[in-house]
Amino acid sequence: MDVGQADAILIKQGTSAMLVDAGNNADAEFVVQYIKAQGVTKLDYVIGTHPHEDHIGGLDAVIRAFQIERIIMPKAVATTKTYEDVLAVIQQKGFKITAPVPGTKFAFGSASFTVLAPNSADYESLNNHSVVIRLVYGKTSFLLTGDAENISEKEMLDKAFTLKSDVLKVSHHGSDTSTTTDFLGAVDPRYAVISVGKDNSYGHPSSSVIKRLQDRGVQVYRTDENGSVTAISDGATITFAVQKDGMTDKAKTSSTPTPAAPVPSAPTQPAAPPKRGGVVIQNVDLVKEIVTLKNTSSEDVDLSGWMLLSVKGNQSFVFPQGTIIKAGSTLTIASGDANGDIKWTNKNIWNNDGDPAQLIDDMGNVVSEY
């Protein structure tokens, strides 16, 4: 989620859901409504990586709002009201906190995750108490690092944990306290996501961190530039969708943020379930890398879980949960340097010499070809 200079990550696998961090205090309502908008009513795991306000600020609201199976937090403590609020609601609801033990593996639907840090109880910086997990689904993997700094990174390296991951959630908003050359080499990601506020006063992300990522050819997504970032794994490949003009801009105002709406957007409480038919591929611009879909029906259509397929290149984009194409409207999916309603990837997808496209619904039916 784009929560500005903070972290909040929602993960879904089948009927299982997990939240890693919950943004600042001011993000509480946004985070709760965002989760609800994804159809989540129960969180199997809630992880508060460490007791800084920009990571646990909205955690008390989340714990109040949802059924929760397990809460994972480090033993590090803080004297802030934010931290005390979180502990108070945990106590009120009769929950117990599970301490993160490195090497412990947890089942998560058809996926699993392993705790890699913290590896000590004695750090000067609360950031190094961050819970770090490596999430694996099929052949794909994600490393979520909280705000872990170079000390914690070295400990993970020294313990010879498996760090290699396809996606790295860059630690500490891209600060130069983290993402050392050795650590980045061990992770060797193809993609990196930086959760960071636009024009923040810390100078995040650090130019040195960005250079290290670029030098390794890592494709970088930033919430200050891309908005909320969704990674979709089918167990073999990972595709990305970005949501612009969301929380970053809203956070500049003093009002309580509301959930950023993707284009197209899903209403939090739709009056009726969107219909399934009537969507066609209207055009595929192979050169400009833009696909245009058209909803020819008189009803909104829910594209959640649908797939756009480049037949010749055998590359696919899965529409994220909550993608709605309004009745009679169009929706553009862009790749390469192009801009559209939804960004598939920064890489070129379509073969200029000819590349059929297929639109496949969430039941596996080919509903349109071009």
- Could you tell me the CATH topology label of the largest domain: Metallo-beta-lactamase, Chain A
**Percent of sequence in beta strands:** 25-35%
The helical percent reads: 10-25%
Helix-strand makeup class: alpha/beta
- Give the CATH class of the largest domain: Alpha Beta
User: If helices are DSSP runs of H or I spanning 4 or more residues, what is the number of helices?
Assistant: 9
Number of domains: 2
Q: So, the CATH homologous superfamily of the largest domain?
A: Ribonuclease Z/Hydroxyacylglutathione hydrolase-like
Short description:
The chain is α/β, with parallel strands linked by helices and 370 residues long. The chain folds into two domains: 8-250, 4-Layer Sandwich (Metallo-beta-lactamase, Chain A), CATH 3.60.15; 279-369, Lamin Tail domain (Immunoglobulin-like, Sandwich).
Give a structural overview.
This protein has 370 residues and is of the alpha/beta class. It folds into 2 domains: 8-250, Metallo-beta-lactamase, Chain A (4-Layer Sandwich), CATH 3.60.15.10; 279-369, Immunoglobulin-like (Sandwich). It contains 9 helices and 24 strands. It has helices spanning 28-37, 53-56, 59-65, 81-92, 150-158, 181-187, 207-215, 223-226, 247-250, and strands at 8-13, 16-22, 42-47, 67-72, 97-98, 105-108, 111-117, 132-137, 140-144, 167-169, 191-194, 219-222, 228-233, 238-243, 279-285, 290-295, 301-302, 307-310, 315-318, 324-325, 330-335, 342-345, 357-360, 366-369. A 7-stranded mixed sheet has the order 6-7-8-9-10-11-12. A 5-stranded mixed sheet has the order 1-2-3-4-5. Strand 23 (357-360) and strand 24 (366-369) form a beta hairpin. Helix 1 (28-37) crosses helix 3 and helix 3 (59-65) packs parallel to helix 4 (81-92). It is globular and about 60 Å long. The two termini are 33 Å apart. 48% of the residues are buried. Mean pLDDT is 88; it is low at 246-275.
